[in-house]
Design goal:
By secondary structure, the chain is α/β, with parallel strands linked by helices. Helices cover 48% and strands 13% of the residues. Strands 3-2-1-4-5-6-7-8 form an eight-stranded mixed β-sheet, with helices on both faces.
Length: 254
């Protein structure tokens, strides 16, 4: 890439803000922003010193589509087919998109508020329909991330599925644990060291070896006692996960 392309950004959420800011920081012109949230559009337009545009008249050399997965196909279908476009969704097969010059720029990370994302050390997974766009996306990615890999749609779908278990389900379990704690007048902060140790341990050893708890020990007395402390929805989830752990370590299911 002899010169940095300008980029128009479709979307105003956390992913759009993260990538927009990183591109802006390395000197790429943010040509415009497009979206439905007028307040966010005004904030980003002012922050990046750019204009607000409509999808049909979008002006950037490249178009970044960083929006919820369910809207990606419809939005990209409205973009000029002569404009190179790339999206950030993990679960959408590239071949399901009719746009002829389309690519993928998938961040393998949970992204919340932009102020908490100081450096991009997580992998960026790249795929493209054309060799020229692939080269551009790799060069862009290498300027903002320490880890860039080619990944086809099928592999990316599998990575995304694994990530749902590793991140999304884990986060939900912690939410439920906090909820039970609060219902019993226990401050969630008491678990801070436990959470820290849990994730630090997983960076050192295999999760199969790191597992502890009553299901790992086949401690049926404790398991049955805890089941009786839960409401019906919580019981169903507790039993399902406990059975999975019991089976993993060759114990009989409940």
């Amino acid at each position: 890439m002899t010169s940095l392309p300008s980029i128009s950004i479709v979307g105003t959420g956390n992913v759009a803000q993260l990538f927009g800011q990183k591109f802006y920081d390395i000197g790429i012109e943010i040509a415009s922003v497009v979206g439905r949230n007028e307040v966010k559009l005004k904030e980003l337009s002012d922050h990046w010193n750019t204009k607000i545009e409509k999808l049909e008249t979008i002006s950037g050399d490249l178009i970044l589509v960083a929006i919820p997965d369910e809207s990606v196909l419809e939005i990209i279908s409205r973009i000029d087919p002569n404009k190179p476009v790339f999206y950030t969704a993990g679960s959408i097969n590239l071949q399901s998109i009719s746009h002829p010059n389309c690519g993928v720029f998938y961040p393998l990370q949970t992204i919340t508020k932009i102020e908490n994302q100081k450096d991009i050390k997580f992998p960026l997974l790249i795929e493209s329909k054309t060799e020229s766009l692939s080269q551009v996306l790799f060069e862009l990615a290498n300027q903002i991330s320490e880890s860039v890999q080619y990944c086809d749609s099928e592999k990316r779908k599998q990575i995304h599925l694994s990530a749902v278990f590793i991140n999304n389900f884990t986060n939900h379990m912690i939410y439920l644990g906090y909820k039970i704690a609060k219902q019993n007048s226990i401050a969630p902060s008491i678990y801070s060291d436990l959470l820290r140790e849990t994730f630090e341990k997983l960076s050192l050893i295999n999760p199969l070896d790191a597992q502890t708890g009553p299901a790992r020990r086949n401690d049926l007395k404790t398991i049955r006692q805890q089941i009786e402390m839960l409401d019906e929805t919580e019981k169903e989830l507790y039993i399902s996960i406990t059975d999975s752990i019991l089976k993993t370590y060759f114990h009989e299911k409940l």
